[in-house]
Amino acid sequence: MNRMVDDGLADICCTTIHSEYKNCGLELDLLSKSLYDIFQEGKERVLNFIDEDADDELQAALKVGFKQIDSYRGYRLKL
Predict the structure, then answer these.
(1) Is 26 helix (H, G, I), strand (E, B) or coil?
(2) Tens digit of pLDDT for each residue in 15-38?
(3) Which helix (H) or strand (E) holds 37?
(4) What does pTM read for this prediction?
């Protein structure tokens, strides 16, 4: 999990779990631990960027209270 932290705001950019360990509840555990750490740092807001195909990650985010505020698509260009 990658957390980029700024004043008052923290971003969670994807929860990546090896396929062997998917559907074991690790997404929720990792997200909960990250939110605890963010709270301890005194942050007020958290943005969580979730791959639209990552249902386990989405379910974990919804379970802890995240609400969808936007949708986006990422693009890559190889130079």
Answers:
(1) helix
(2) 778 888 877 888 899 999 999 999
(3) helix 26-40
(4) 0.76
